[in-house]
Design goal:
With 410 residues, the protein is α/β, with parallel strands linked by helices. It has three domains: 212 residues, Rossmann fold (3-Layer(aba) Sandwich), CATH 3.40.50.620; 80 residues, no CATH class; 80 residues, RNA-binding S4 domain (Structural Genomics Hypothetical 15.5 Kd Protein In mrcA-pckA Intergenic Region, Chain A, Roll), CATH 3.10.290.10. The chain is built from 17 helices and 14 strands. The strands form three sheets. A six-stranded mixed beta sheet has the order 1-6-5-2-3-4, with helices on both faces. Strands 7-14-13-10-11 form a five-stranded mixed beta sheet, with no helix packed on it. Helix 4 links the parallel strand 3 and strand 4. The longest helix has 18 residues. The protein is globular and about 80 Å long.
Length: 410
């Protein structure tokens, strides 16, 4: 066996890792010197990846660089069944065409992180497409209902007397069979997937295979700094976000999550992380500079260094300098539109809270009214606080720190 360099081993097993089960066995397999099959499954129910997915993909890339093979399981079969994955309800079933389209979009984004030369994408339908009822019944005989009720979300829903569909009980079994089908050596997933990944390890053992190791990744908090990053929660930073939006979302992160983003998403040296934490705790310009550094690194990675420089310059001009961006969208005002009280020759009289909410500049009328009362609405560079106000055609309206629009007569 060839011993791995201790610094490299630390990077693989400690940096950005929640738990490895069992860790000693995983290290022994690494040191065998044989290419390992690294399994990671993705639910193609949504077409876009976000930075939360990148945490696991970065770890896979580290192992690919050592010569190991990534096998991406496209869950085209289980996506049509529904898996709660810690949620209180089931997912919407998708058609085969929807799954295919989403998976193709996914793959384009995967390769921004992983090495396509050491990646093999396989669809579950390759083995489940020929499954018979007898195969399914044989698979269900390997586990008991009692075992599955130990899964956290099932246990909670059972205790609360909320329904659990039989199809949901099948999901962990089907995911586990993926590991059998490809003879996985290591499976990767978030900490919320621990139960499902361990079912795969146990099923392999029961079917005469060497059981996979389980590699659990930390959950990246979203832009709210509290809940896990997710599209359904609206707190995500998508890999397909345009440079300005990606940079702006990173700059809007709560200070206390910035060190974790550096730890999980960058190659900042381990010995620099304490200094990053200290700078963030001190607040002020130091914390802002770190967010800019993080924003530049992410935009450079997923777009280009030039796009990152432009995004930073735009942020500093618009958000910090209070200037309008080079391109401002127009909103047409017409008599009878929501929030339009009257249309004159040179200006329109607006009920600003209603108008802003109706045109997507605030999430609700109440929130728009709060912004107005806080002095966060400007017209032509002048702060407005009155609910009803005349606004000249061509005037640029600023709402909060980053939203701008121009009023145009219809």
């Amino acid at each position: 066996m060839a011993k791995l360099d201790p610094e490299l081993l630390h990077k693989i097993t400690r940096r950005g890792v929640a738990e490895i089960i069992p860790e000693a066995e995983f290290i022994a397999r690494l040191e065998e010197g044989k290419p390992l099959k690294l399994k990671m499954g993705f639910d193609p129910s949504r077409p876009d990846l976000h930075l939360g997915h990148v945490v696991g993909l970065r770890k896979l890339r580290q192992l690919q660089d050592l010569g190991h093979e990534l096998i991406l399981i496209v869950g085209d079969w289980t996506a049509q069944i529904g898996d709660p994955s810690g949620q209180s309800d089931t997912r919407t079933m998708l058609s085969a065409d929807e799954v295919k389209d989403n998976a193709e979009t996914y793959m384009q984004q995967f390769y921004k992180v992983v090495d396509p030369e050491r990646t093999r994408a396989v669809y579950q339908s390759e083995w489940f497409g020929s499954f018979t009822l007898a195969d399914v019944i044989q698979l269900t005989s390997k586990f008991t209902v009692n075992q599955f009720l130990h899964r956290d979300d099932f246990a909670k829903r059972y205790a609360d007397q909320n329904p659990i569909a039989v199809t949901e009980m099948l999901y962990p079994l089907l995911q586990a069979y993926d590991s059998v089908a490809i003879e996985a050596d290591v499976e990767f997933g978030g900490t919320d997937q621990k139960f499902n990944l361990l079912v795969g390890r146990e099923l392999q053992q029961r079917m005469g295979q060497r059981p996979q190791c389980v590699f659990l990744m930390p959950i990246l908090p979203g832009t709210d700094g509290v809940r896990r990053m997710g599209k359904s929660l609206g707190n995500y930073i998508a890999l397909t976000d345009n440079p300005a939006d990606m940079f702006g979302k990173i700059l809007s992160l709560p200070d206390d999550v910035v060190p974790l983003y550096f730890e999980l998403l960058t190659d900042a040296p381990d010995d620099e992380l304490p200094a990053i934490r200290s700078a963030v705790e001190a607040g002020g310009a130091g914390a802002l500079d770190l967010k800019k550094r993080l924003g530049v690194e992410m935009v450079s990675w997923f777009h280009s260094p030039g796009a990152a420089a432009d995004a930073q310059a735009g942020f500093e001009r618009v958000v910090q300098g209070g200037e309008a961006p080079a391109e401002v969208p127009s909103i047409v005002v017409r008599e009878g539109d929501a929030g339009v009280l009257g249309v004159g020759a040179g200006e329109a009289k607006l009920d600003l809270p209603r108008f802003l909410a109706a045109n997507g500049m605030a999430p609700s009328v109440a929130q728009a009214a709060r912004l107005l009362s806080q002095g966060a609405v400007e017209v032509g560079g002048q702060t407005l606080r009155e609910r009803e106000a005349p606004v000249a055609y061509g005037a640029v309206v600023k709402v909060g720190r980053r939203r701008f629009f121009r009023v145009v007569k219809g």
